[in-house]
Design goal:
The chain is an alpha+beta fold. The protein contains 7 helices and 19 strands. Strand 5 and strand 6 form a beta hairpin. Helix 6 packs antiparallel against helix 7. Bound molecules: zinc ion (ZN) (2 copies).
């Protein structure tokens, strides 16, 4: 029996003789079913017409994403550290070339994922690299292929190793998580943000939404809480969830001014339409 994959969000489901009747992730208000309706694929089919592309951003941080883009189109990040590598976020396509390349770079000690839209084929990756997947427990109802490799963490932070900390920000999802690596950016610190702190198209600002495709904003209170969760952490560079969504410099102050701008906009204390 295959593990079917939703072509709209990339989520892989538990084994079933027929494709699931619907994708729970796409039926929910934060995602969408495409105009042509719900369709399904498998990893075997995906491997026939997609490959993974790589971009090294800085020593120890490499992006990996599928070409042509598939489903939501995010790229994952491979973080290489002395005491073990971490895959941040996940993509649906795992093929032999990707397994060989990552094993040659030391394999994976863990996978950590920001939120359910990027759970994709996490269980395939965990099995290929014999490593655990760290997910925030608040989002456990969105796991569509349960597996013993999945570990749920609770609380506000989870320390891994070599200066890596998972930070629960909430917002987009209740368990919405970002990764902070103190050793990134030459020791000035990096944040891998998924779309929990979403890099705007201009790459000068961040925004924070319950749904990006359906334009559902978050409350001022929720975004203020994101700002408080990030306050203890220093960072220079912030990696968003697409290859080109990177804030290279001064990302901490970009986050602070973006939280302020967002709260002013939704509170009506900055009137964009005043003449
Ligand atoms: Zn879906
Ligand atoms: Zn998302």
């Amino acid at each position: 029996m295959p593990n079917f994959i939703c072509t709209a969000c990339g989520t892989q489901y538990a084994k079933s003789p027929q494709p699931p009747a619907e994708c729970k992730i796409c039926e929910e208000e934060r995602q969408y079913v495409p105009p042509h309706g719900q369709t399904w694929t498998t990893l075997e089919v995906l491997r026939q017409d997609h490959i993974n592309a790589w971009r090294e951003y800085e020593p120890g941080i490499t992006g990996v994403g599928s070409q042509p883009t598939f489903a939501i189109g995010q790229r994952a990040l491979l973080l290489r550290m002395p005491r073990g590598n971490v895959l941040w976020d996940c993509i649906s396509l795992l093929d032999a070339a990707t397994v060989s390349a990552i094993k040659a770079l030391g394999g994976l000690k863990a996978i950590a994922i920001s939120h359910p839209h990027f759970y994709t084929t996490m269980v395939e990756w965990a099995h290929a690299f014999d490593c655990p997947v760290h997910l925030n427990a608040a989002d456990k109802d969105w796991i569509m292929r349960p597996d013993p490799a999945i570990g749920l963490w609770q609380g506000d932070t989870l320390k891994l190793w070599d200066g890596v900390t998972l930070i629960r920000c909430g917002g987009h999802f209740e368990g919405g998580t970002v990764l902070h690596w103190a050793g990134g950016a030459g020791g000035r610190g990096v944040v891998c943000a998924g779309d929990i702190l979403a890099v705007a198209t201009d790459r000068k600002w961040l925004t924070f939404m319950r749904s990006y495709p359906n334009f559902i904003p978050l409350s001022a209170r929720t975004v203020a809480a994101i700002g408080r969760a990030m306050a203890p952490f220093a960072f220079e560079t912030l990696y968003g969830h697409y290859f080109d969504r990177v804030i290279a410099k001064d990302a901490k102050s970009v986050l602070e001014k973006s939280v302020t701008r967002y709260i002013a906009a939704v509170n009506g204390t900055r009137d964009y339409d005043r003449r």
